[in-house]
Design brief:
mainly beta, five-stranded antiparallel β-sheet, two-stranded antiparallel ribbon, 7 strands, 12% helix
Length: 94
């Protein structure tokens, strides 16, 4: 596996997909949650986290599913070479 930084980090943002990132309008698949789920299920996209500047593909592709299109806090270490956060914990944010 890829080397990860030893210190857990917290990433805050919106669960999106690797295909759309911050903008779901091009896909015309409905709301952000519907678009994220549709892109992951039907178009081969991966769950990702958009923090307002960066889109991070997430290591775990099951835990983010219920949070599609929602603001979350992800805790885990960042794989340095790939810049993919390992998802140790994910929780909804207001």
């Amino acid at each position: 596996m890829f080397a990860a930084s030893s210190e857990p980090r917290t990433f805050t943002g919106v669960v999106t997909c690797s295909m759309c990132g911050a903008d779901h309008s091009a896909m015309t698949m409905g709301s952000a949650p519907e678009c994220v789920q549709g892109c992951v299920r039907g178009h081969g996209a991966q769950y990702a986290l958009y923090d307002g500047r960066n889109v991070y593909q997430l290591s775990d592709q099951k835990l983010p599913a219920p949070f599609a299109g929602k603001k979350v806090r992800v805790t885990g270490v960042l794989y340095e070479k790939t810049q993919i956060p390992r998802v140790d914990r994910i929780e909804a944010q207001p």
